[in-house]
Structure formats: C-alpha cells, structure tokens
Amino acid sequence: MLPRSRLALVRARLQLPTLRRATGLLEGRHSAVWKGHGDEVDDLHVYTPGDDVGDIDWRASARSATPVVKRYVATSNVALTLVVDTGRHMCATAAGGEPKHEVAQLVADVVAHVAHQRGDRVRLVAGDAGRVVEVPPGAGTTHLEVLLRRLQRTFDPDAPAGDLTRLLDRVLRSTTRRSLVVVVTDEARPGAADEQSLRRLRTRHEVMVVQVVDADLFAAGLGTAPGTLAGGSAAVERGRPVVTPPRARTVRDIVSGWSLPPFLRGRAAVRAAVAAARAARHAEVVARTRRLGVTTVSVESTHDVLDEMVALLGRSRRAGR
Q1: pLDDT tops 70 at residue 171
Q2: What pLDDT, on a 0 to 100 scale, did the predictor assign at position 254?
Q3: pLDDT per residue as tens digits for the range 114-129
Q4: What is the DSSP string of 150-218?
Q5: Can you list the pairs that 274-282 forms with residues at least 24 positions away whose Cβ atoms lie under 8 Å?
Q6: How many helices (H) and strands (E) does the chain have?
Q7: What are the residue ranges spanned by the domains of the chain?
Q8: pLDDT at position 177, please?
Q9: 287: pLDDT confidence band, cut at 50, 70 and 90?
Q10: For position 308, what pLDDT does the model report?
Q11: CA distance 112 to 186
Q12: Which pTM value belongs to this model?
C-alpha cells in the first residue's frame, strides 16, 4: 500500500478559514519584503525621499503641482527556505506527549501546504552536527512531496547532536535572493552560540523561528510545561490530550543517555526548580531573537501547530509594517 500524500494529510487537518487566513498573512508578508515593479499600478502617492524617481507620474504631478509616484502591485512569488533541526534531541518527547519530530514535521507540512497554495518555491535545509540534507528550491506537488518525505527520513534517534549554526551558515552562503526563512528547532534554540550566524542571516533575509517545547519530565505526568513557554494561544483551552505515562516508568534523556530516577518525578521542589530554569532559559532565547528582529512561536503538540503558525505569521506581518 502506497503511503498517503503528506500534503493530503495536512490538507485534511486544515480548516478552510485557517488556510485562507494563513495564506493571506503570507501574502501580506510577501508584499512587505519584496519591493519592485509588478504588472499593475496599485495607486498613486506623494513622492517622499527614497522613492524611485523613475516611478514619478509626471502627468499626475503636473495636475496636482506636487510630485506623485506610482505604487505597483508586486507579482513575484515568495522564495521560502525551510530550515529544520534534525539533531537527536528532536526525537525526544514534546510537551503534548508526542515525539518532537512529529510536531516539527507537521510545522514543515503546514508551511509547504501554504506555499503550495500560493505557488511559492520552497527549499529545504535540514541536518545536525554530522550531516546536512538539502532539497533545492522548487514548486508543485511532486517537489513538495519529495521534500517532506526526505525530511521525514532524516529524523533519527541515533543521529548526531544538533548544530543549528551549521544550518544557518549554509543558508547564508547558498541563498542569494532575499527569502523568508522558517527555522524549526526546540525550545533551547537559537542559543548563544547561534547568535552571530542568526544576526548575519537576518541582515539578508526575513527569519521566523518555531520552537517545539519539551515535556516536563519532572512533573507527575507529561503534557504540561511552564506557562512562560506557552505559545500565542492556550493549548489546554483547545482540548489538547495529555499523555500520562506510568509513574514507575523510567525516563531517559535522549542526548546524554542518563535515566531519571522515578522517585524524583512529581516532587514539588524539583519540579519548581526545573521549571524556573527552563523559564529563565526561554526568556533568554526570546530576548536574543527580539534583539535580532526575529519572530518566534512555541508549540507544545501537533494540536497547537495550526493556530500558532497563524499567530506567528500575524505577528511577523505586524512587525514588518
């Protein structure tokens, strides 16, 4: 039996109003980032310093005795680069109880589907400290299916550690056209080591970051995270299911291989200390991205992805005005 199309799977999850809203927000972001002449004149406005003198409508200027400039409708498509961190930490458990890579994959599916509806070209750069997987830019159903399937095969619990800096540098070196870069990683990134690369990338491209929130392994049950790590809308209010493993189950850190003794889980003091440390780290990451003009959103599960991606696009569009 042939596997179902990933675009078809995400289409089944998308409600039409959500799709229209996300597509419209990306359209707004597109016209704000790429300036230039289209095929149609949108309107006229008074000349301001910095406008192209070649756009002056001399007849309209003569009638109004004031220099007037033509404003055109942009017609080019978005150049979109999808950067996905596939280090082994992305195979850990997300706050909703699912593997983090499943949440990251759905983010990629949604981005690809919205781009497909608009006819935009999408490129993939994914990998970790030991490998970089690239799919060149392209559009159309076949290209996006190949891209998403390639990404799906890249996630591996035995993969090397993550290296977001390496991926950002690869995009910076190989992408000359101004693009929308969507980075998918976890709540601890971009870290201090990634700041320089992120700053350089931001000077050439527009960057958005989607962070997949880790499960609170010190709590009595999975499915909750410190409140400051929540995204733009409350996952609990949307009825997201919570997975609670048996209390006696041993929890192992996928990066270090260390196991968490069961007796530590559920202890209030331990949980409070871990939550405070995570909240402080998250605040540091948010401050770092804000300094660089990068819009971020946190998602806890696949049930959050659609709403949070729309919120992310909305915030980025408002910030670009």
Answers
A1: yes
A2: 85
A3: 888 888 899 999 999 9
A4: HHHHH--TTSPPP-HHHHHHHHHHH--S--EEEEEEETT-S-GGGHHHHHHHHHHSEEEEEEEPBP-TT
A5: 274/216, 274/218, 275/216, 275/226, 276/226, 278/187, 278/214, 278/216, 278/225, 278/226, 278/229, 279/226, 279/228, 279/229, 281/187, 281/188, 282/187, 282/226, 282/228, 282/229
A6: 9, 10
A7: 6-29+78-319, 41-72
A8: 85
A9: very high
A10: 84
A11: 20
A12: 0.77
Instruction: Count the residues in the chain.
Output: 321
Q: Convert 219-243 to b/e letters by CB count within 10 Å (16 or more is b).
A: bebbbbbbeebbbbeebeeeebeee
Structure tokens at 309: 């991606």
Which one, of 214, 25, 42, 221, lies nearest residue 110 by Cα? 25
Phi, psi for 260 (deg, rounded to 5): -95, 120
Structure tokens at 147: 């891209």
Which numeric CATH code is attached to 6-29+78-319?
3.40.50.410
User: Mapping DSSP to helix (H, G, I), strand (E, B) and coil, where does residue 307 land?
Assistant: helix
Give the tens place of pLDDT for each residue, 253-277: 888 888 877 777 767 888 888 888 9
